TrEMBL record:
Source species: Streptomyces corynorhini
Domain of life: Bacteria
Ranges in coiled-coil conformation: none
Protein name in UniProt: NAD(P)-dependent alcohol dehydrogenase
Domain Alcohol dehydrogenase-like N-terminal: 3-86
Length: 162
């Protein structure tokens, strides 16, 4: 929505394909591919040059530095993909590379006896709320409407401030 409305804060390079998060189906594989087969459902890695451990350097990012996922097809190394959970729709899975990972990172290490405050009901906050509750923390959420407050309660918020 931010891209479509012209409010994206990072000016794209000329002719750069936008979008940093995606889910899709493998349509073809190269001869040396070992992790996936045609028909596998996959999700992209948000940071395609970081394979694990401490992040030492921010590499090129989809939709900002290199072509993103707002196209019909993309040719990528198999190591920038992960298997998509079977129970998720493509829309749900496409939220995992950025919003879910950010929410998980934000509450890593919390547990029983901890209290977490999340702001709002969009993007990262619902993920942080669910991860924190799963870890046993109390979660207080803020929001701007009773309908959103009810949804946050359904997701496990202990308290909601409207």
């Amino acid at each position: 929505m931010v891209i479509a409305s012209g409010l994206y804060p990072f000016p794209p390079l000329p002719n750069l394909i936008q979008l940093s998060d995606a889910a899709g189906v493998i349509e073809a594989v190269g001869p040396d591919t070992t992790r996936f087969r045609v028909g596998d459902r996959v999700v992209n890695s948000f940071n395609p040059t970081w394979y694990g451990g401490p992040l030492r350097k921010l590499g090129q990012m989809y939709g900002t530095d290199i072509d993103g996922w707002l196209g019909d097809y993309a040719v990528v190394d198999e190591n920038v993909l992960v298997s998509m959970p079977e129970h998720l729709s493509f829309e749900e899975a496409a939220t995992l590379p950025c919003a879910a990972l950010t929410g998980w990172s934000a509450v890593a290490g919390v547990g029983p006896g901890d209290t977490v405050l999340v702001q709002g009901s969009g993007g990262v906050s619902p993920f942080a709320l669910q991860f924190a509750r799963t870890a046993g923390a109390r979660v207080i959420a803020t929001t701007s409407s009773e309908a959103k407050a009810e949804r946050l309660r359904e997701l496990g918020a202990s308290d909601v401030v409207d």
